[in-house]
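In response to the reviewer comment on reproducibility (Comment 2.3), we provide here a single inverse folding case reported in full, input and output, so that an independent group could reproduce the run without further information from us. The structure tokens appear first.
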């Protein structure tokens, strides 16, 4: 994650079911579903003003850290999150082994 995103807090917006960061007044977020021991990440999006800034990567990294710190298992349905984990295999440790694409990570 780029240093400029390190001090931006991650918000868990339970009303809209998304993890969010706000950068210069613009939103980057991941929609989620939460179950007893699992969190499914389904869609990552960043405002057009944040394109190319690294905000989407920052919200992914912060969300994965949240999942790890809270002892949850990840279901990475979002293609962006799935690709991120494939590039950073240290995060595979939080993916639920029952996830249908687990062997492809």
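Designed residues, in position order:
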């Amino acid at each position: 994650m780029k240093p400029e995103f390190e001090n931006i807090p991650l918000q868990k917006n339970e009303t809209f079911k998304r993890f969010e960061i706000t950068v210069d007044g613009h939103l980057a977020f991941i929609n989620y579903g939460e179950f007893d021991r699992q969190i499914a990440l389904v869609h990552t999006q960043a405002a057009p003003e944040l394109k190319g800034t690294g905000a989407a990567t920052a919200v992914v990294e912060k969300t994965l850290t949240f999942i790890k710190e809270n002892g949850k298992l990840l279901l990475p349905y979002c293609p962006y999150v799935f690709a991120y984990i494939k590039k950073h295999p240290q995060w595979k440790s939080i993916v639920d082994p029952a996830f249908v694409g687990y062997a492809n990570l």
